Amino acid sequence: MEPSRNYPLFGGAFSSILPAGAIDVSDLRPVPDNQEVFCHPVTDQSLIVELLELQAHVRGEAAARYHFEDVGGVQGARAVQVESVQPLNLENLALRGYCQEAWVLSGKQQVAKENQQP
């Protein structure tokens, strides 16, 4: 079994540990500059890391939820489920000098893949 690996994101600005077998979708098709997209050939699951524009009218946990639900709406998601929203300790972030807060949201969206019906 292939071990998980540390993978650079957005030209090396930061990185993520990806599961064994994850495939960089940009090797298969065009991916927008504000996204990093990975898929797994066995589980048929996708991981999308997306850089989003600041929305000054929402902050904190509400901002994480706002962006997740907005992306789901743009993608035409049939279902959007937030599983957890947790603050990140700024001391552990490489970008700590550039942000006042950071959040990680885990959730699921039921979205049709490219060229498929929902």
Automatic annotation (TrEMBL):
Q: Any keyword Transport?
A: yes
What domain of life does the native source organism fall in? Eukaryota
Asked whether the keyword Transport is assigned, the reply is yes
What InterPro entries does the annotation carry?
Mog1, Mog1/PsbP_a/b/a-sand
- Keyword terms: Protein transport, Transport
Q: Which GO terms describe its biological process?
A: heart contraction; protein import into nucleus; regulation of membrane depolarization
Of which family is this protein a member?
Answer: Belongs to the MOG1 family.
What is this protein called in UniProt?
RAN guanine nucleotide release factor
What species is this protein from?
Answer: Sciurus vulgaris (Eurasian red squirrel)
